[in-house]
Amino acid sequence: MVNGIERPLDLLNASKGKEVMVQLKNDKQFVGTLMAFDIHINVVLDNTKEMYNGEVKKSLGLAFLRGDTIIFISPASTSLKE
């Protein structure tokens, strides 16, 4: 057990209300505040930004990302250039 995380969804629970980075199968990348998720890893992000080469491509605000399009979710620790 590392940082109180024993199961995969524990990381998502610990990340609620925090910024995460989501990589999709179509090579799109989004950064936003994780608001909610379900057992299918459908996620709701707030203050969502579509990223390209580390820079903001588009600001989307509140967004729903379907779980079957997601490759990975990572706690965001990068600084955003806006």
In the CATH hierarchy, the third-tier topology is known as SH3 type barrels
Which strand order do you get reading across the main beta sheet?
4-3-2-1-5
* Number of domain modules: 1
Radius of gyration: 12 Å
Output the number of helix runs: 1
Mean pLDDT: 89
CATH class: Mainly Beta
Unreliable stretches, pLDDT < 50, 5 or more residues?
78-82
Sheet-strand content, in percent, reads over 45%
Q: Which class of secondary structure composition applies to the elements?
A: mainly beta
Biggest beta-sheet profile = 5 strands, antiparallel
Describe the structure.
By secondary structure, this protein is mainly beta. It has a single domain (8-75), classed as SH3 type barrels (Roll), CATH 2.30.30. 10% of the residues lie in helices and 51% in strands. It has one helix at residues 8-15; strands at residues 19-24, 29-37, 43-52, 55-65, 70-75. Strands 4-3-2-1-5 form a 5-stranded antiparallel beta sheet, with no helix packed on it. A hairpin with a 5-residue loop joins strand 2 and strand 3. The longest helix is centred in the first third of the chain and has 8 residues, at 8-15. The protein is globular and about 35 Å long. The protein starts with 7 loop residues before the first helix and ends in a 7-residue tail after the last strand.
Write out key terms for the chains shown:
82 residues, mainly beta, SH3 type barrels, five-stranded antiparallel β-sheet, 1 helix, 5 strands, 10% helix, disordered C terminus
